Amino acid sequence: PKRYPSSVFLKIVWILSTPFILLRLMVFLRKIKPDVVITSLYQADILGYWASFRLNTKFVSIQHDVVRTNPIIRWFKTRALKNTDKIIAISNEVKQFLIEYFKVSAFKIEVIYNGVDFDRFLSFQKLDQDWEPVFGIIARLDKIKGHIYILEALKKLKSEGVELPEFIFVGDGVERKNLENFVRENNLSSVKFVGETLNIGQYLKQMDVFVFPSLSEGLGIAILEALVAKKLIIASNIGGIKE
C-alpha cells in the first residue's frame, strides 16, 4: 500500500504554500483575463475568489459537501461564496447546508445532480445466477467513509458463529494501514483490499451487495453507480444519500 503523509503535515504544507499559490493564480488570471472562473472544493473556492478579486469576471462555485469546517476556513469560504455569481449544488441537501451553514442566498444556488454513465455501469451487472453473495464498497479509505463500521460488524458476526461473506474494499487512503491491522488482528480473512484502481468495473461486477456506511455525503455518486449496476444497497441514512 501507498504511504500517506499525516493530515497535520498536509495542513502545514497547505498553509505554507498558500501565499505562493495565490500569487501565481493572481498573475495567471490577470494574464489570461477569463470571462468565468469556476472553482470546486474549499481551497479552490477561497483561492479562486481572492485571485480573481476586482477582475471583470464571473465567479461560479461547484459545491459537493456537507462538511463543517474550522472557524477560520468557514470565514474565508463564507466570504468567497457570498461573492459568487452562481453556485452549483450537487443535491438539495447540499443546497440547504449552504443556506444554513454558510448563509448563502437560496436564489444564487442551482441544484444539478452528478451524472452517471448508464451504459457503462449497466455493463457491471452480475450475470451469474448462483447466490453466493459478495459484498463490497468503493470509496477512499478515509474515516469519513465509515469502513471501520463494516469491519466491526463482520467481527461481531464472526463472534456469533456466522460464516462471513467475501467483502471487497476498493480504494486507497490514509486509513488503509489501520483497517488492514484490524482485519489481521481479528482474522477477518474474507475481507480483500484491492487498492486504488481506474478499472472499478471488474470489482463492481463481482458484487451483489454494495455497502456505504459514510458519515457525510453531499450526494454519494458511488451509490448511484451501484444502483445502475443493479446492486442491493446498504447505506447510511444521512446527507444526500437520503435524497
Name the poorly predicted regions.
none
If helices are DSSP runs of H or I spanning 4 or more residues, what is the number of helices? Answer: 10
**Quick one: how many beta strands?**
9
Quaternary organisation of the protein chains:
single chain
Radius of gyration: 21 Å
Helical coverage, percent range = 40-55%
Query: Which percent band covers the strand fraction?
Result: 15-25%
Q: Could you state the order of secondary-structure elements as H and E?
A: HEHEHEHEHEHEHEHEHEH
Mean pLDDT: 91
What is this structure's SSE topology?
Layout: H1 7-32, E1 36-40, H2 42-51, E2 58-63, H3 71-82, E3 86-89, H4 92-101, E4 109-111, H5 118-122, E5 134-138, H6 147-159, E6 166-170, H7 176-185, E7 191-195, H8 201-204, E8 209-212, H9 221-228, E9 232-235, H10 239-242
Parallel strand pairs: 1-2, 2-3, 3-4, 5-6, 5-8, 6-7, 8-9
Structure, described:
- This protein has 243 residues and is α/β, with parallel strands linked by helices.
- Helices cover 42% and strands 17% of the residues.
- It is built from 10 helices and 9 strands.
- The strands form 2 sheets. Strands 7-6-5-8-9 form a 5-stranded parallel beta sheet, covered by helices on one side. The protein has a 4-stranded parallel beta sheet with strand order 1-2-3-4.
- It is elongated.
What are the main properties of this structure?
alpha/beta; five-stranded parallel sheet; four-stranded parallel sheet; 17% strand; elongated
